[in-house]
């Protein structure tokens, strides 16, 4: 529909939510412009990190 209205090149489409390495190819085939994969950062343990500048 966006293409028919001449709007597809003016809008950036992003797929997000429950996307992982097992299903990302399916989302890529939809021709979205960007794919967000939150489990890359949500599934790792944090580390205690500090930076001191003198």
Structural write-up:
It is a single chain. This protein has helices at residues 24-28, 39-42; strands spanning 14-15, 34-35. It is of the alpha+beta class and 54 residues long. It has a domain at 8-38. The chain has a two-stranded parallel sheet. The radius of gyration is 18 Å and the shape is elongated. The model has no long low-confidence stretch (mean pLDDT 92).
Helix and strand layout, with pairings?
Layout lengths: L13 E2 L8 H5 L5 E2 L3 H4 L12
Parallel strand pairs: 1-2
What brief labels describe this structure?
single chain; two-stranded parallel sheet; elongated; alpha+beta
* Radius of gyration from the alpha-carbon trace, in angstroms: 18 Å
Number of helices: 2
What structural class do helix, strand and pairing data support? alpha+beta
Q: Quick one: biggest sheet?
A: 2 strands, parallel
Proportion in β-strands: 5-15%
Basic shape = elongated
Strand order, sheet with most strands: 1-2
Separation of the first and last Cα atoms: 57 Å
Q: Could you report the average pLDDT, rounded to the nearest whole number? A: 92
- H-E string: EHEH
List low-pLDDT spans. none
Helix content, binned percent: 10-25%
Number of strands: 2
């Amino acid at each position: 529909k966006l293409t028919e209205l001449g709007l597809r090149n003016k809008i950036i489409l992003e797929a997000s939510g429950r996307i992982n390495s097992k299903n990302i190819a399916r989302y890529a085939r939809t021709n979205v412009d960007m794919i967000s994969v939150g489990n890359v950062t949500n599934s790792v343990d944090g580390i205690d990190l500090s930076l001191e500048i003198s």
